[in-house]
Write a structure and sequence with these properties.
Elements lengths: L8 H8 L24 H8 L21 E5 L2 E6 L8 E13 L9 E10 L9 H18 L5 E5 L5 H12 L7 E4 L1 H13 L5 E11 L5 E9 L4 E7 L2 E2 L4 H5 L1 H13 L3 H4 L1 H7 L1 H13 L5 E2 L2 H11 L11 H11 L12 E3 L6 E4 L1 H12 L4 H27 L3 E5 L6 H13 L3 E4 L10 H13 L5
Parallel strand pairs: 3-5, 5-6, 7-14, 9-13, 14-15
Antiparallel strand pairs: 1-2, 3-4, 7-8, 8-9, 10-11, 12-13
Helix pairs in contact: 5-16, 7-10, 7-11, 7-13, 9-10, 11-12, 12-14, 14-15
Length: 471
């Protein structure tokens, strides 16, 4: 991720010891993937003996597990990618007195939010809520912060996805505390993203909200992730979105970007998809390629998604950067890094088309982009140029739709959020284009743009939804 200075006496002892001399140390958290940090010596021995060669033990117990925070500094701004040690439990002023609220967050990069008076209290980074250990850490942290701030939540906010452990916990907590049903508030995932930006910057009027991420439950039964809203702190209207494509295999497509590449090829070339997928077939095998194309044809285990993150995955695979993830967002990171190596920084955007119909959201169709990328590959255009043109295209889409929505609504504030905007190349291009066009542009700073900041937005939307009962 980056670098950090020694910040404990033990770190200094490692560098100053009479034994081996180190100029630098590579350090990572003491935990298995997707599990919380091991909190005592016995747990470390039990879980990490198959990984670690040596153990350096300590006679001080860990009272509360806290990961290191991660921040990116640029253009005079510090933007958190992970809000944890050093930033929690510092509060965020939300500009209005509220009742005590618990917002349970999402599933990945979990963090919850409590409110007390006019303060929002974000938990430290919990991790992905996908197993019992992570859920127990969530509960342990909640108990600690409730006691610290004397918070007794009477309003509960949660994601709309019914299968998230955070959603299930919200209902369990409400039942255990006898919290009335009208005080348990579902919040649409991407609305929460935009509301988190509004809360940070004290934005009380409507904004153009642009949320780009992996996936989140939509109101129409599809998985959203490339969204343009007109929104305030309580309501939102979906005004435009990426055209939906198949997510073949559901969650499996998130870990295997070649599936999304096939999905976009099928959408673009239909029966010609197999001939366009020769590189992918050579990488993963004809049997898998044929099976996925048939799965898409039959609409078998292929939910529809408008995800911007999955479009990044598709393009990364199409140009031969990443077919299978070894860590989260690897394909998108490779695509960004490749774009940064382009020789010519003034690449022009690819084409895309826009479907505009009365009383329906605009749909952004990337089939022209996919066709031209495939032609560029056959013509020998280098990957770096293709990757940069792709980023420039998305920045142009952001400006195009924002300009159309400003004409319609007279709103000049644009809020950008969602994990895709951790891509500093895309966010920088979009911010520059929007600012040059006279927009006021707002991004997350104190909480992550990824799902680690969703709980702040949930808390704000929930309060706007129920405060009528208290006024």
């Amino acid at each position: 991720y980056g670098v950090m200075l020694a910040y404990t006496p033990l770190h200094y002892m490692l560098f100053k010891s009479n034994g081996p001399r180190f100029n630098a140390l590579v350090m990572t958290s003491g935990n298995m993937a997707d599990e919380p940090i091991a909190a005592d010596n016995a747990e470390a021995f039990e879980k990490l003996s198959g990984i670690a060669d040596f153990f350096l033990l300590h006679d001080r117990n860990i009272y509360m597990r806290v990961d290191d925070a991660i921040a990116r500094v640029g253009s005079g701004k510090t933007r958190l990618l992970r809000r944890s040690r050093g930033y929690t439990p510092n509060t965020i002023m939300i500009g209005e007195e509220t009742k005590d609220i618990l917002a349970c967050g999402a599933e990945l990069k979990s963090a919850f939010c409590l409110t007390k008076n006019s303060h929002a209290i974000m938990s430290q980074h919990i991790g992905d809520l996908e197993n019992l250990h992570a859920m127990e850490f969530f509960k342990e942290t909640l108990k600690n912060l409730k006691n610290t701030f004397r918070a007794e939540p009477k309003i509960i906010a949660h994601d709309m996805h019914p299968d998230y452990l955070s959603t299930r916990f919200a209902f369990e907590y409400a039942n255990a505390e006898s919290i009335p049903r009208q005080m348990v508030v579902p919040v649409q995932h991407h609305h929460a993203h935009i509301a988190s930006v509004m809360a940070e910057h004290g934005l009380n009027k409507s904004v153009i909200g642009i949320a780009f991420d992996g996936t989140g439950a939509g109101l129409d039964g599809t998985l959203w992730g490339g969204e343009f809203f007109i929104t305030d702190r309580r309501h939102f209207e979906r005004k435009a979105h990426f055209e939906c494509v198949a997510l073949p295999g559901g969650k499996a497509a998130i870990k295997e970007p070649w599936r999304m590449a096939l999905s976009y090829l099928k959408t673009t070339f239909n029966d010609g998809a197999a001939s366009e997928a020769k590189r992918i077939t050579g990488s993963v095998g004809e049997k898998k390629t044929t099976a996925i194309l048939k799965m898409i044809d039959a609409r078998l285990n292929t939910p529809l998604t408008s995800s911007a993150g999955r479009l990044f995955d598709a393009v990364s695979s199409l140009i031969g950067l990443c077919d299978t993830l070894t860590f989260e967002a690897e394909a998108a990171i490779e695509l960004e890094n490749t774009a940064r190596r382009a020789k010519h920084k003034d690449e022009k955007p690819y084409a895309y088309s826009l479907s505009v119909q009365p009383d329906a959201p605009m749909r952004i169709d990337f089939r022209p982009l996919i066709r031209k990328i495939m032609l560029d590959l056959k013509s020998g255009v280098d990957k770096e140029s293709i990757a940069l043109r792709f980023h420039v295209t998305l920045a142009d889409v952001i400006l195009d739709i924002s300009t159309r929505l400003r004409t319609e609504s007279r709103i000049n504030d644009v809020a950008l959020s969602g994990g895709v905007f951790q891509n500093s190349l895309l966010s920088g291009l979009a911010q520059a284009k929007l600012s040059s066009a006279g927009f006021n542009v707002w991004l997350n700073e104190q909480v992550p743009a990824n799902d680690g900041g969703v709980a702040l937005g949930q808390a704000i939307v929930a309060w706007e939804s129920v405060k009528k009962y208290f006024c």
